[in-house]
């Protein structure tokens, strides 16, 4: 049994859902059955439940506390190649404040109640009891990892874990609020707003896949958000089938990754302009 598998089983026994990490500190890619979300996508902002795929697949949603899954033949190859172990904080009812530099650590010591602290390569993880929607870049050098996110396991840490304080929740309050870009919403064409070439189920599935594409972005988030907006608008922007509910779901997914409301609106507007839809 590898050290990584042993660590994962120990975490699971304590109610913390682990998953294997490959080199680069990222989850393993989706399995062939689910590659490029041909399975229709699993967890997303609207349906954040656990992954049902038997492989270590779908990023953070692969995390599980079931030892028969973790130590199964389906996962054996991943543990052989794993470079580390991660876990889903929200799945354990936890929130991790990821402090990435000395300035961020100094801010935490001046602003946050002490709790359990885990040293990292460049800073510290502060662990609190309680889950919330996470976001990146809530302050310079500060990320929040909780629901629908993963973070590396670097040891148990020291100190007594305390309850998630309101000051941490407030860091993502503005980012987690849905933004409806009414000024750039594509109006329905003459003749009604029904999509003439796609079914409502197809549209909803497309939006869910777009949400997951944004949620799973590990780098180049700005570019991923723009490309995702562009893909959605290129398929449905001329139909009149997109509603404020659909755009709000996409904006919410982007903001959960640390995008500001302004970045979301700019990306949406730029996608419209690129497709010649800004005056549709």
Your description of this structure?
With 280 residues, the chain is α+β, with helices and mostly antiparallel strands. The protein has 3 domains: 83 residues, no CATH class; 82 residues, no CATH class; 98 residues, no CATH class. It is 36% helix and 14% strand. It has 10 helices and 10 strands. The strands form 2 sheets. Strands 4, 5, 6, 7, 8 and 10 form a 6-stranded mixed beta sheet that branches. A 4-stranded antiparallel beta sheet has the order 2-1-3-9. A hairpin with a 4-residue loop joins strand 5 and strand 6. Helix 7 runs antiparallel to helix 8, helix 7 runs parallel beside helix 9 and helix 8 crosses helix 10. It is globular and about 55 Å long. The termini are far apart. About 6% of the residues have low confidence.
Blueprint (SSEs and pairs):
Layout: H1 3-13, E1 18-22, E2 26-27, H2 67-70, H3 73-81, E3 84-87, E4 94-99, H4 102-111, E5 116-119, E6 124-129, E7 135-139, E8 142-145, E9 151-152, E10 162-163, H5 166-169, H6 173-176, H7 200-215, H8 221-236, H9 244-256, H10 261-274
Parallel strand pairs: 6-10
Antiparallel strand pairs: 1-2, 1-3, 3-9, 4-6, 4-8, 5-6, 7-8
